[in-house]
Amino acid sequence: MTVLNQLNHELIQLVGFHSASPRTVTLAAKGKIEVMLDFTSVDTMSCSFQEVRVNVPALTQATFDKLKEWGQKLCQRITYLLENIGPLEYDEDAAQVLIRSTPPDQKPDGTRFYEVILSSHANGNFSLKRFESQKGQPGRTQVDLQVTHEVLRKLVEDLVNTVP
Amino acid sequence: MVRRIDRDQQRFDKIIKGKVRQQLRKYINHGEMIGRKGRETVSIPVPNIEIPHFQHGEKGSGGVGQGEGEVGQPIGRGKGDGDGPGQAGNERGQHIREVELTLEELADMLGEALELPRIEPKGEDALTSKKDRYTSIRPTGPDSLRHFKRTYKRALRRMIATNNYDPQDPFIVPTKDDERFRSWKTVTEPHTNAAVIYMMDVSGSMTDVQKEIVRTEAFWIDTWLKRQYDGIERRYIVHDAVAHEVDEDTFYRIRESGGTRISSAYRAADHIIKRDFPPSLWNIYCFQFSDGDNWGEDNSDCIENLKQNLFPICNLFCYGQVRSPYGSGDFIKELRKVEEEFGNLILSEIDDKEAIYGSIKTFLGTGK
């Protein structure tokens, strides 16, 4: 079963699910790639989730250039979220790439942005979250990502297809 | 005797300084004067001050004066009513005058506006510096140091003693023996010195706007500390995941795209202090600016480093968290946990340029 078929199946199963503690769904793709989604709410058309993670065993201890290449491909492909994303920080020592919304969504009361972290520590890892920062308050709070089923399918497909 | 023009000039300077004082908050927040900083003075644009003055009327348009006519007769008939050519402008005229203030004057204004206490240096005045003082007179020296009054007096005395002086024709010709010159002595003076270490996060998330805020704030901090100490040594550290010591110009212009590890800056600061500034002799100030977006696992390293190396030796450790387009990070929360334990740790959140004024007051208002 393809990763999209698995996702469709899981979404149908989860319709009506709504909980503060997320339910993690794991999808398997070729090359032992795993896509994990932490759903907090699903209805017939859309869903919300806390995080998407991708584990890529083939990228274990990959060179930093490979990680950068992955980051660049992701930024070019993922153009359909609320904001475009772009690489912000490259930390070669920590083997991590930080990608964020460029520019973030700036409102008078604060800011919202996507954050992607790519790393090649244990496996090749991808993590996508969304954060909110209130004006006048330090720190940021993680908020759910809300997308339609169609956008989620495209996102998962792009995540799997951009792995170098 | 003070000449009248000097008195007028002093009065004018007073008015100008009053204007600057009134708008000091604006100047502090917007850093307008930093680009105009010279070696010892700063040029400040202030609105023009209108001085009343006479103006000649048009030829033949009449005027007031003595001449023909009876008492009560109207004078100076104007020309007929009507609009002249062209339209009146609707913008206010722009008159900008640049005035020069010394950095000491600026520092005094800052201290007055923010009600900053004088700093009490720690320890003894352990450092000494050598200075030349012109305190004595000698018979030889360069012409530029010739003491005219003493030379004249000696020549006058000699001419009187030798009966060559004629009060009707008081002509004095000094000879070489009459000449006297100023001479100096080199003296050592004990004084207090301060070392200021600026640290700035230049990772990808710090934009030019944040750096401008840091630059403005650092300028005022520098101005104040220079006023308080005889000698100031500054060092600049920039960091992303790795820290580097840089010069002042690079400090404000560099941009990196690496990750953020604040502990690297603390290690660099500790290295500089150990190398250049023995804490027993120096008043040490650290000012750090970041958006607080540190890699999570580095926070504990930072706190450990601060507790072990920097807090015990610094007069002040000031951390300014500048809000970036991605908000304000979590690092300040980590520092708040140890804030009560260390009285020399001062924290400030700088949301935008308007917050610079309050932040300077927070940092320097302790009098340490």
CATH class division of the largest domain in chain B:
Alpha Beta
- Low-confidence stretches of chain B are none
- How large a portion of the residues of chain B is in β-strands, by DSSP E? 15-25%
Structurally, the number of domains of chain A stands at: 1
Which percent range fits the helix content of chain A? 10-25%
SSE-based structural type of chain A: alpha+beta
- Assign the CATH superfamily of the largest domain in chain B: von Willebrand factor, type A domain
Helix content of chain B: 25-40%
Average pLDDT of chain B, rounded to a whole number, is 82
Q: Report the CATH architecture of the largest domain in chain B.
A: 3-Layer(aba) Sandwich
SSE order of chain B, as H and E?
HHEEHEHEEHEEHHEHEHEH
Kindly report how far apart the N and C termini of chain A lie.
Answer: 22 Å
Q: Main beta sheet of chain A: strand number and arrangement?
A: 10 strands, antiparallel
CATH overall fold name of the largest domain in chain B:
Rossmann fold
- Cα-to-Cα separation, first versus last residue of chain B: 43 Å
Strand adjacency order, main sheet of chain B: 7-6-5-8-9-10
- The topology string of helices and strands of chain A comes to HEEEHEEEEEEEH
Structural overview:
The complex is a heterodimer of chains A (164) and B (368). With 164 residues, chain A is α+β, with helices and mostly antiparallel strands. Chain A has one domain (3-161). Helix content of chain A is 24%, strand content 47%. Chain A contains 3 helices and 10 strands. In chain A, strands 1, 2, 3, 4, 5, 6, 7, 8, 9 and 10 form a 10-stranded antiparallel sheet that branches. The radius of gyration of chain A is 16 Å and the shape is globular. The mean pLDDT of chain A is 91. Chain B is of the alpha/beta class. Chain B has 3 domains: 4-49 and 95-114, no CATH class; 128-189, no CATH class; 193-364, Rossmann fold, CATH 3.40.50.410. Helices cover 34% and strands 22% of the residues of chain B. Chain B has helices at residues 4-22, 24-30, 103-114, 148-161, 208-228, 248-253, 262-276, 299-310, 331-339, 356-364, and strands at 41-47, 96-102, 127-138, 181-191, 193-201, 231-239, 243-246, 283-290, 316-322, 345-350. In chain B, β5, α5 and β6 form a beta-alpha-beta unit. In chain B, α7 packs parallel to α8. Chain B starts with a helix and ends with a helix. The interface between A and B is medium-sized, with 26 and 24 residues.
